[in-house]
Amino acid sequence: MQRTRPVGDVLLKVDDITLSFGGVQALSGVSFDIRKHEIRAIIGPNGAGKSSMLNVINGFYHPQQGQITFKGQTRKQMRPHEAAAQGIARTFQNIALFRGMSTLDNIMTGRLLKMRSNFLFQLAWTGPAEQEETRHREFVEHIIDFLEIQSIRKTPVGQLPYGLQKRVELGRALAAEPELLLLDEPMAGMNVEEKEDMCRFILDVNDEFGTTIALIEHDMGVVMDLSDRVVVLDYGRKIADGTPDHVRGEQKVIDAYLGVSH
Amino acid sequence: MAISPGTTATANAPLTEAGYRPAWADTFPKLLRFQAMARGERAASREKTYGIWQSWTWGQVAGNVHDLACGLHVMGLGRGDKIAIVGDNRPRLYWTMVAAQSLGAVPVPVYQDAVAEEMRFVLDHAEIRFAVAEDQEQVDKLLEIKPRCPLLEHIVYEDPRGLRHYDHAVLSSYDQVQQNGRDFAAGNPGFLEQEVDKGKGSDVAVMLYTSGTTGQSKGCMLSFDNLVITAENGARFDRLTADDEVLAYLPMAWVGDHIFSFAEAYVAGFCVACPESGATVLNDLRELGPTFFFAPPRIFENLLTTVMIRMEDAGALKRGMFHFFMRVARRSGSRIMDGQPVSLTDRLLYALGRYLVYEPLKNTLGFSRVRICYTAGEAIGPDMFEFYRSLGMNMKQLYGSTEASVFIAMQADGQVKRDTVGPPAPQVEIKLTEDGEVLFKSPGVFLEYYKNPQATAETKTADGWVRTGDAGYFDADGQLKIIDRAKDVGKLKDGSLFAPKYIENKLKFFPNIREAVAFGAGRDHVCAFINIDMTAVGDWAERRNIPYGSYQELAARPEVYDLIRGNIEEVNRDLAKDAHMSSSQVRRFLILPKELDADDGELTRTRKVRRRFIGERYETLVEALFSERDHIDMQMEVRYEDGRTGAIRGRVRIDQAKTFAPEGKPEAAAAAAAGGRKAA
Fold it and tell me: Which of A114, B225, B248, B566 is deepest in the core (most CB within 10 A)?
């Protein structure tokens, strides 16, 4: 399939990232880049440091060593809210939604950073606050339409099946209009049909909004189909980086996944 | 858009006898012109998008249709061409019908859930050159069959999502077509008005492919006269006005939707709303609160089942209140509505119940404003019918077919019975043949089946009567009672009457039983396949801590067999009371390990069982039913929704049900009934 927006320049670059928790070395000297408009997969066996890597990019963990360059700005560490303000949004491996709130309200929370009107106006819900909410609601409705979740608009997310909750979480991340979208195992625990749906949504997001996507995924079929480039981690080190076909042929990757006899 | 009325085509022209339209407005494009003149600022179409109900006035609809029609003309659509319309109910797709008709082309709505092969048959048979599709899903299907439909030239899509990278040699967007139309109209003012004026009432308005319980579907051609006059009669019968509002949610390819959500709206000028998506219909129904509602019994049954299950989960106070007031309603609700005497206490209790239970419940279901609601297509259960009527809903029945532009018989307000379908509809004549088949004559009688003179001749007699294929008779009040398909009414070995659908319907009235298929023609006794209702039985099982992982597993549970046996025995007891049905008691039954499905060809798209096909497909099971065996091992292929196939295998248990001695004197009573039927 041809792309509307060709893969562009480097959007994010991580350089020589080392992260440890006490004596546990989670990441050691990992470097790679993510280009504009591409879908970048991060794979690796359990405990390879994939989620840690996302948490570093996201500003949740602060690496002991290394640099992150996002949109040309280099920094050693960044707080999560700074990352969000700069255009990085994410979903979580274990869904982190407000379970008692409706789908609509959950996705609305993704617009929080875009809300400008002051607290008192919001309290009275007049003037700018009302207009602003209408504007954000419109944007959220487009996401609801995009993700085809109209029928659960008013349903508390706690009552939804797992696959739909994942979709709502994606919706909330999209509501922030991110430049870089981090997806932590978006398809974990889904059945084949739900996976196919989610794949289509990820491709559509990339295509329609031009969003750059970095995703962690275990289903190799999905990774090979979706991603432009793959980075493979094992025990906190990068062991391969390249196109899906290239990575699949690497002996180190095969060893990491299948194990080696000693 | 400026609407330039023809010389005689003014809004002030005298109306026809029915009082809805001037005589010049004899086609839908002309009716649209009339409505735009008469009530240009009133809402004509609604659709929920982005969470908000969007509305278009009759004037805006006329403008949209004008642009689209001009655009389609630019693409080459002309008089006599056929244009397929594929998708869920969308205002733009309804407009496409009128746009095509404006140019003298014939719209052919296609069932949106048809698999590619079914769609190919229709497109090929109708010689479709143009197709208008709702979205990527339908476009994919059309592109898949395009190589085998060489005549198909253009596909217009409504929703561009996901289609950006498709080859646009054959694809165009709806918006683009409208834009082309505007450009064309700028250089050719008055073009479309002239085209519309060329249309006559006797022209073909639409081709509706009947789903057909047997064989290939047939393209039923209906003229503007058929539809407009029938719709006018129907609207007058129920005193529909421009203030009514309906929700269009049934397939556009079905004649019922064509009359209720399209033809009657264009005649009476009321607003038709389209739901946001198939999954949101119940929610949209509640928000919209239609005044005129049509649904097959299945939908009312599903709603009732949902209400009952939710009431079981409600708190003790609410549950108690619900059951108490429902008893009051059952006792007096229908009688109050029909104006029959009811004691003062019950009247007061009913008034209280209305405040506490009935109105809130109706509001939850979206029926607060319903003035008239119809159900048709299948027999309806006593529980369900009583439930809605006792709530004060004016639920009536009608009997119709595609070949009649719907109406054959229908019930008037206040003269409603559960087991009949009413006296003949306005301007309809009904007669019965020797063997009980229902024949009719009406202004709505179809022109012919497209390219199928043989089928036309089989259905339409030389003197203008149309065979319905249904067997029935008139009861003492002159209301028609339909018992079964005429060809399905058979005889048991001992010569007694066997009307399978009659038995199946009795079984299906139990919420536990979703589908039933009865066998018995030429046999000693009657046996049946049962499909349990996953919602009702699943809920029942959960309350009793009966574990199950799938439909198949649940269906095989001995507890479920006991439950179903109880239901069957109740039916048998009931049948034993009916003189000429007492031999039809169900002796043996099995619960199918798979739900009957339209994708496997076991049901029609309108969910009627294809008895013969099922009999052949499950031949080994049928034979086992009529043997002495108590189980049978089976294996069969199933088709999933995405087109892949898989296999189901397992052991199916066969169980016995008690039968009862007939009451009364069968011979004498049966003879009297047969005689009475002929006399009617």
Answer: B248
- Residue-wise pLDDT for A88-104, tens only, equals 999 988 888 999 999 99
> Chain A residues with CB inside 8 Å of B52's CB?
141
Could you tell me the domains of chain A? 1-87+178-262 (3.40.50.300), 95-174 (no CATH)
Query: How far apart are alpha carbons B29 and B623 in whole angstroms?
Result: 56
Residues in B touching A104 (Cβ below 8 Å): 51
Q: Does the CB of A144 have a partner CB in chain B at under 8 Å?
A: yes
> Half-sphere exposure of B218 toward its Cβ, with a 13 Å CA cutoff?
23
SS (H, E, C) A59-93: CCCCCCEEEEEECCEEECCCCHHHHHHHCEEEECC
Residue A153 and residue B51: Cβ atoms within 8 Å?
yes
Q: Is the ipTM of this complex over 0.85?
A: no
Q: What is the pLDDT of residues A205-261, one digit of tens each?
A: 998 888 999 999 888 888 888 999 999 999 999 999 999 989 888 888 888 877 776
Paired tokens of B622: 């049928």
Domains for chain B: give ranges and CATH numbers.
28-294 (3.40.50.12780), 488-666 (3.30.300.30)
Q: Which residues of A touch B162 (CB under 8 A)?
A: 200, 204
User: Side-chain half-sphere of A54: how many Cα atoms within 13 Å?
Assistant: 24
The angle that helices B500-508 and B558-577 make with each other, rounded to 10 degrees, is 120
Q: Which helix (H) or strand (E) covers residue A252, if one does?
A: helix A251-258
Q: Which residues contact A239 (CB under 8 A, 6 or more apart)?
A: A232, A233, A250, A252, A253, A256
Place of tokens 């995924």: A217
Q: Are B165 and A150 a contacting pair at CB < 8 A?
A: no
Q: Which of A202-206, B126-130, B374-378, B389-393 has the highest mean pLDDT?
A: B126-130
- Give pairs for B337-342: CB < 8 Å, separation 24+: B337/B389, B337/B392, B337/B394, B337/B414, B338/B414, B338/B416, B339/B414
Which of B50, B162, B280 shows the shortest C-beta gap to A138? B50
Q: What is the pLDDT of residues B135-168, one digit of tens each?
A: 999 999 999 999 999 999 999 999 988 888 888 8
The stretch B641-661 carries a mean pLDDT of 83
Q: Is B39 helix (H, G, I), strand (E, B) or coil?
A: helix
Start-to-end CA span in chain B (Å): 56
Question: A142 vs chain B: nearest CA distance in angstroms?
Answer: 6
**Which three-class secondary structure state does DSSP give residue B309?**
helix
* pLDDT higher than 70, residue B23: yes
Residues of A within 8 A of B642 (CB-CB) are: 193
Query: Average of pLDDT values for A28-35?
Result: 94
Paired tokens of B32? 């649209």
Chain A residues whose CB is inside 8 A of the B364 CB are none
Determine the average pLDDT of the residues in B200-215: 83
Q: Are A145 and B49 inside 8 Å of each other by CB?
A: yes
% of chain A residues with pLDDT over 70: 96
Question: B642 to chain A: nearest residue by CA?
Answer: A193
pLDDT for the residue numbered B579: 64
Name the strand (E) or helix (H) holding A40.
Answer: strand A39-43
Nearest CA distance, A109 vs chain B (angstrom): 18
Query: Is residue A140 over pLDDT 70?
Result: yes
